[in-house]
């Protein structure tokens, strides 16, 4: 201590960051960090010393312990006191700034003049903030390495003594510019992969195997579901899917133990496809104007009804119906009115038949019905009259009131035949007889033997 004092006096110059070990009257040894400067009288002669000392005993103890640790650390590391002066640095940091350890000890970032001033001030500001909050901080910053400005990852933490008092800071920094470059290249590959996925026209998704929640979806999934990725991720099908019909193919992704880890799938909205199929089927089996079964579906319905009649030992009537003078209405009012009349008539017929019966439109104004579960001819006649009663009330079409009648021909299963074509032909023949007798009437088919017997 005396030697430092004499040096300041004799050389008439300040001496800074002096580390001194002092024995106290109570027997304790303490370490001080001192700054000393000469004091002059009126004549400019050195007459004393002015000094400022800081007790760095605790930091010095820590410094001894951490010096070895810092040198074994794989990154540039340091220990500072509360004023930002380096108490210990490792070889990596000293080498990075082209200084020796001793040159750095006791100096601040500003004192060392190794960083631009604005960087050194920012480092000091970070140190104060960390000591104030008593919390560690991990962040990225631009810093110099090998005289080049590079991206660094920096960690800083407060040094707190047993009494809970902040006595300095410690930290490390590492050059992550190479890692950042690798991450950038990886990100480019990921972006390329994402662009491929997002250009797949069907929904692509990845779910976890346990809860079946979405982990990844593509752009098509957003379009299909109508939600953003953020609103889909973490949800299940039940949470996000609107009412629609989808076709999905799925494959499990297994872990090293062959246990399911994820579920990868691709989905396609086939609602329109199913609707189109339904429409095609409707046109194939149903009449476009009345919505009734057409000739194709009539064949299937006849088979079912005939089988039921055989099983129940019942009769079945095939009714052929044709409007009287329908052509007059078409010629006078146009086919649009004629079509509406057909539709209105079909609506009335539906009200008088059972669900198990079939009404079909063969074309024009020609309707065919299959009605089962009859035991007596009298019951068939009652139904025929019921059909004719449908014509009694005028049909209100737009602003018109149309009066029209119909003629009915009837053949009976199994009496007249077991064959569908024959029964339809026989019913058509009977209907022709009803028309020839003036219309608005019904006739049963009579075979040649029946006609001979009647005559």
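^ structure tokens above, recovered residues below v
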């Amino acid at each position: 201590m005396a030697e430092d004092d004499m040096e300041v006096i004799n050389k008439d110059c300040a001496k800074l960051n002096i580390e001194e070990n002092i024995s106290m009257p109570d027997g304790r040894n303490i370490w001080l960090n001192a700054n000393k400067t000469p004091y002059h009288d009126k004549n400019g002669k050195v007459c004393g010393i002015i000094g400022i000392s800081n007790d760095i005993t605790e930091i010095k103890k820590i410094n001894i312990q951490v010096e070895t640790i810092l040198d074994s650390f794989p990154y540039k590391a340091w220990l500072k006191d509360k004023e930002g002066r380096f108490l210990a640095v490792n070889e990596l940091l000293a080498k990075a700034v082209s200084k020796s350890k001793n040159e750095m000890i006791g100096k601040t970032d500003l004192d060392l003049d190794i960083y631009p001033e604005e960087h050194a001030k920012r480092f000091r500001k970070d140190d104060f903030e960390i000591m104030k909050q008593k919390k560690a901080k991990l962040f990225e910053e631009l810093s110099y390495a090998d005289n080049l400005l590079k991206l660094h990852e920096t960690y800083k933490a407060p040094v707190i003594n047993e009494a809970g008092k902040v006595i300095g800071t410690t930290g490390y920094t590492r050059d992550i510019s190479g890692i950042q470059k690798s991450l950038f290249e990886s990100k480019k590959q990921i972006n390329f992969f994402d662009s491929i996925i997002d250009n797949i026209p069907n929904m692509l998704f990845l779910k976890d195997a346990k809860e079946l929640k979405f982990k990844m979806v593509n752009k098509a999934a957003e379009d299909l579901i109508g939600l953003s990725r953020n609103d889909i991720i973490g949800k299940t099908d039940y949470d996000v899917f609107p009412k629609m019909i989808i076709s999905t193919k799925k494959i499990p992704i297994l872990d090293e133990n062959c246990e399911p880890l994820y579920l990868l799938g691709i989905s396609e909205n086939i609602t329109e496809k199913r609707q189109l199929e339904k429409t095609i089927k409707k046109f194939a089996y149903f009449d476009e104007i009345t919505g009734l079964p057409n000739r194709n579906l009539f064949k299937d319905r006849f088979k079912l009804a005939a089988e039921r009649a055989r099983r129940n030992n019942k009769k079945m009537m095939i009714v052929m119906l044709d409007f009287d003078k329908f052509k007059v209405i078409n010629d006078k009012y146009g086919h649009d009115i004629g079509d509406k009349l057909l539709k209105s008539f079909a609506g009335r017929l539906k009200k008088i038949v059972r669900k198990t019966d079939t009404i079909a439109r063969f074309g024009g104004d020609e309707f065919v019905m299959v009605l089962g579960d009859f035991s007596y001819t009298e019951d068939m006649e009652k139904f025929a009259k019921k059909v004719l009663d449908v014509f009694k009330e005028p049909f209100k079409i737009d602003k018109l009131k149309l009066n029209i009648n119909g003629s009915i021909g009837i053949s009976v299963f199994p009496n007249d035949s077991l064959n569908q074509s024959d029964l339809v032909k026989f019913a058509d023949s009977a209907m022709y007889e009803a028309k020839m007798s003036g219309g608005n009437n019904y006739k049963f088919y009579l075979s040649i033997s029946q006609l001979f017997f009647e005559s």
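The CA atoms of residues 249 and 325 lie 58 Å apart.
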